[in-house]
Amino acid sequence: MAPSPLLAPLASSVREVLSGRADGQSEIARAIARPAGAPGWFEPGDAIWTVHGSVSTFVGGIRSLYLQALHPLALAGVDRHSSYRQDPFGRLQRTGAFIAATTFGSADLAQQTVDAVRQMHTRVKGTASDGRAYSAQDPRLLEWVHIALVDSMLSAYLHLGRDGSIDPDAYVADMAVVGRRMGVADPPETQDELAATFEGFRPELRLDDLVLRTHDFVTGAPLPIILRPGYRVLARAAWATQPEWALDMLGSTPRLGAVDIAAADAALRVLRVALVASPARLAGEARLAAADGSGAGA
Asked: Which pTM value belongs to this model?
């Protein structure tokens, strides 16, 4: 499918926010394309490849931020050690690069990316406002961040993904591969295990002013003007598709949830036409195709 000239400004703005470049050809996309023929942790046809190559990840990413903020120790680490308020795009780009590298990159690139994040985590530690210590290396907190991301990306795809059917359990199992490399001791491998893990975390979750401020920031992210209306649509869908127990905890019952999801579906259809395909996924496909000796992606 050829890109639409009418949607070129939208596509450029989205790619600039996500990758720092209007053409989407970021440093990570170039790294994913090398070396020619090198296998990765995953390949085309795997559930994780399908989910993370979909524009539904826009909703999944927002939803994961809403959900992750409910754990006070995880939120303390983000609030005190992240520059997301001063540089929200930078943090978004780093998160996107991590997902892209571990999903579409070579095995070496995926491991290098995980190692870099784990090294960064050694500096994220302190004492929360309630006096409890926190550390980004804590396997329990790593597990919370992991399951919030897995559940959110999966939920978004099941509601809004249009790139083919997937086995939800296969996606959870694929993400468990990444989770273990990140230091999660025993990540869930099925939807049932994922749900059970959430149940085990619920007594640790809390709603306070910091959570509400964080949610407000996520909802009103300082995006370029051209992107703000569409982002609001996606944010409403991300909110409406949170787990029922999370919405109950937040005292929120989206009365127009179905409408919000339908509106997000329409917005993502436009994005799908504007963006055509994920540069990271295309780079991964090109690298793997080069295994036949054609030299593509070298």
From this structure: 0.91
